[in-house]
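Before relying on records like the one below, remember that each one covers exactly one chain. Contacts with other chains, cofactors or solvent are not represented anywhere in the record.
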Amino acid sequence: MAHHLPSTFYSRGFAALAGLLLVASGCDDGEPAAANPCGEHGEWHEDHCHCDQGYSLSPAGTCVSTTPAPSTDAAAAATPPDASQPDASNPGPDVPTPPDDANTGEWTFTPSTTRASIGNVADGSRVWVMEGLDGLYVLSVEFYERYGAPTAPGTYPVQQHETDYATCGTCIILATECTMNGQSLSCAKELMPRAEGEVFLSAMGTSPGQRITGELRSLVFQEVTRASDYTTTVVAGGDVMDLSLWAFDMELNPLEGPGPVCGGHGHPHGNVCHCDPGYQTDPTDPMNCIPQ
């Protein structure tokens, strides 16, 4: 920032300087002692100097530049920024930080509560569902045999058709900003993966009591909205989150019916149980019902 003198100081200083110049110029009716006392930036005219444009008389009577030297602030402003240093004035987009590793941005999903189920849909094809709850995040994976999901161990890249809930066989959904409202789990945003990363399965049980084991690797989630026909649209400027790893190893429960589902006192609805009268959703496990 340039420094400006107060106007009162400037006017008083200018008047004093003008008086000094008149005294120091030695102007009289005689001839100058030298051929051109004005220096190389002015000419003698009868009894005083005519200075070139940009110059004025100094106390010594010569013509000197009136252009001030650049201040240190001005010099600093004229210096281009060092591209190797971060620009604190432009911190970049506000990207939500996963809960466990804000420094690296690499998020390893480590849920406090998990559940896996297997069952059949109306046409007899199988469906597997895995769910994990980690603080304000719910991550679920749904494998639909009818739509080409894997049914055996292997490594499966995330394909373009799996970025849309209307066409996915392996449907991976990340719900964020989740809160418990009474007996319901409410999440503000939903994200699905881009066509990158992979699903690794080392075991994929085919009936309750068996296990599903594997990893989600190097997924990039983007915020989406879903229409009533399940068509998925990416939210322009929405949240983007990187998942480096989710390693899972879970026993498969029946997808529907009595027994371990919802503690035997309710039925699953999305990522939360609807509990029977006299029971409520477990605050530590939305997929379980406990007595009120």
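Helices lie at 7-24, 72-78.
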